[in-house]
Amino acid sequence: SISYAKSVLQTPRLDRREFLLENKSFVCECVRCRGLDECNPLHCESCNDGLLFNAGGDDKWCCTSKACGWTAHAVEGDGISRQLESMTNLANDINFLRDSLRYGIDERTLPQALKYQELITEQCHPLHWLHIAAWDLGSIVAS
After folding, report:
1. Which helix (H) or strand (E) segment is 20 a member of?
2. 94: part of which helix (H) or strand (E)?
């Protein structure tokens, strides 16, 4: 297969597909884009052991634990929706801080970047794409 989007490789599936449609004018149907969204796992509320992955681009989430096998649809106000909202807020904060770097770095920038790294470590599974975004931001700020 051909990688059309190295810069979006570690982003959630819907973001990758949107990028490819807007920039390369096609809807990707590769296995990675049709399967579970491995860059965006959530913690399973049912078993607290497995991971929830979005299945197929809709709002259905599936637990990877064979002992659990829980599936659910994200409903406003439930645990999945709260986790998704938290991740969206963190992503927006990281993007805002990254965008503000063009105006320079001051003594508050590194502590802010470190704060986001800590929050993401606490709230996100290690496979979540926000880890890459936060560590990338931290390395930019620290250099």
Report:
1. helix 13-24
2. helix 79-100
Q: Indicate the SS3 state at residue 107.
A: coil
CA-based angle 130:74:5, to the nearest 5?
A: 40
Residue 62: pLDDT above 80? yes
| CA 64/CA 12 separation, integer angstroms | 18
Instruction: Kindly report the backbone phi and psi dihedral angles of residue 116, in degrees, each rounded to the nearest multiple of 5, phi listed first.
Output: -65, -40
Most confident of 24-33, 44-53, 88-97: 88-97
pLDDT at 2 over 60: no
- Both tokens of 26, joined, read 């096609």
Q: How many angstroms separate the CA atoms of 32 and 44, rounded?
A: 21
What does pLDDT average to over the chain? 81
> What's the rounded Cα separation, in Å, for the pair 50 and 45?
9
**Is the pLDDT at 34 greater than 70, yes or no?**
yes
